[in-house]
Write a structure and sequence with these properties.
Helix content: over 70%
Structural class: mainly alpha
CATH architecture: Up-down Bundle
Strand content: under 5%
CATH superfamily: MFS general substrate transporter like domains
Length: 462
């Protein structure tokens, strides 16, 4: 690389303010995400909505999500604002998500069941649309803040760490203060205000300094699907993620675990802390470890370790709460590697798609990521709700469950995720896109080396 190119790359270093505000935005965003992921099903069932209906509602909303995410990704790729590629969308999301969240949790408790169900569907669809506006741009902006893979990994690591911290806060605060401050709606309002405050600084600190090649004008749905279909590593990676994510029903059932398995809703705060702390530790380790190991190796370590620790935890059981908490912590270590690394592969897949097809479409790539994240969260929520229905869950806050409910609940909450982890691991063994190859294709995509030079360096490895 020439000295001129080296100097140009030095100018692309992100600032401290950008790093801090990027992490803060993720904290705010994840306050909303974890609030719905962990507590939406309990909120709906506390409102008296049948758990099987909750499962259907989730699937209906994600059918809409299947439409709006790719559409929005295509819009992001085509639209170029004067003040940035991704930042204007992030600014719109600043108020759209809090408003949609409050509306969602404002279902009148005394309304007829039909009104509650309609409110739940419409409110969730509005929330999902608002969240889409932020989710594609917040990941995509790393490609315009810097062209360095190491900096992108660092930014995403910071984001994931702050997101996990937010998850801890929400998971601890909601079961601790929900009833004290008046119920679900006041809790949603307080958290929405805190999230808005955390998300705001990025709107002023971020500078999109790396230009994205303009997407061709005729890039329609046909070209979009051709771009996705030709990106084999994106398909492999997200296929593995779908299997793993769709069966990760533990988070959505956390409130029920605390209420029925351990006997008290307030236990959820302890469960959340014990389960999430090792993920935070993994988040701090990953930026150091990726300097020595390919992140794919670390990712697969997470899957293998999670399979083993889940299996051990199942046989240890839940009769001893201290033993249960120890195994929860142990399970959290490899799971932390999965959670912290899972979104770091999309920039690589986006670069590969650009290199393979000649089309720069980061919006499409990150829309697949956000769609996958929301789809798997929805599928896991729906699967968890269906599992509750199958084992005979009785709706209503404070309702009494059958004598054999706890044993059935334990089997479902442990064996379903274990099967998903094993399946995801097997699929991901087909993923061959490594960091050293991504560096080569990124240099090609940014014009530092020619396509012929890149092909020679890759030597058919991908």
């Amino acid at each position: 690389m020439s000295k001129g190119n080296s100097a140009a790359r030095q100018e692309n270093l992100v600032t401290i303010n950008e790093k801090v505000s990027y992490g803060a935005y993720f904290a705010g965003q994840n306050i909303f995400y974890i609030l719905l992921l962990t507590f939406l099903t309990p909120f709906y069932t506390d409102m008296g909505i049948p758990v099987a209906t909750v499962a259907v509602i989730t699937l209906v909303v994600k059918a809409w999500d299947a439409v709006n995410d790719p559409i929005f990704g295509a819009v992001v790729d085509k639209v170029n604002f004067k003040k940035g590629k991704f930042l204007p969308w992030i600014k719109v999301s600043l108020f759209a998500i809090p408003i949609a969240t409050v509306l969602l949790f404002a279902i009148p408790s005394g309304a007829p069941l039909g009104v509650k169900i309609a409110w739940a569907v419409i409110g969730y669809m509005l929330w999902d649309t608002a969240y889409t506006i932020c989710d594609v741009p917040i990941y995509g902006i790393v490609t315009t803040l810097t062209d360095r893979i190491s900096e992108r990994v660092l930014l995403l690591s910071i984001g994931r760490i702050c997101g996990v911290v937010a998850a801890i806060v929400v998971s601890v605060v909601v079961p601790t203060v929900r009833q004290r401050i008046g119920g679900w709606l006041p809790t949603a309002i307080v958290l929405s205000v805190l999230a808005l405050i955390a998300m705001a600084p990025l709107c002023f600190a971020a500078k999109e300094r790396v230009s994205v090649p303009k997407t061709q004008e005729d890039f329609g749905f046909k070209e979009m699907f051709r771009f996705i279909k030709g990106n084999k590593y994106m398909l492999i990676f997200y296929a593995g993620g779908w299997v793993y994510g769709a069966t990760s029903i533990g988070t959505g059932l956390g409130m029920y675990t605390a209420r029925y398995l351990l006997g008290d809703e307030s236990y959820l705060a302890i469960l959340s802390l014990v389960g999430i702390i090792p993920m935070v530790l993994a988040g701090f380790l990953i930026p150091v470890l990726v300097k020595r190991f390919d992140k794919y190796t670390l990712y697969m370590f997470g899957f293998a370790g999670a399979v083993i620790t889940y299996a051990i935890a199942y046989f240890v059981g839940y009769s001893s709460i201290p033993a249960y908490l120890v195994m929860l912590f142990v399970r959290g270590i490899p799971s932390g590697f999965i959670v912290m690394l899972m979104f770091m592969f999309t920039p690589d897949c986006a670069e590969y798609g650009h290199y393979h097809s000649g089309i720069a479409a980061p919006g499409i790539s990150f829309s697949i990521q956000t769609f996958s994240a929301k789809l798997t969260a929805a599928l896991s929520t729906s699967l968890g709700a269906f599992a509750l229905a199958i084992i005979g869950f009785v709706e209503g806050e404070g309702a009494t469950q059958s004598a054999d409910f706890i044993g059935k609940f334990w089997n479902a909450s442990m064996l379903i995720p274990l099967i998903g982890l094993a399946g995801g691991f097997l699929i991901l063994t087909k993923y061959k896109l490594r960091d050293k190859y991504v560096d080569i294709i990124t240099r090609c995509n940014t014009g530092q080396i020619s396509k012929e030079e890149a092909d020679k360096l890759l030597d058919g490895h991908i």
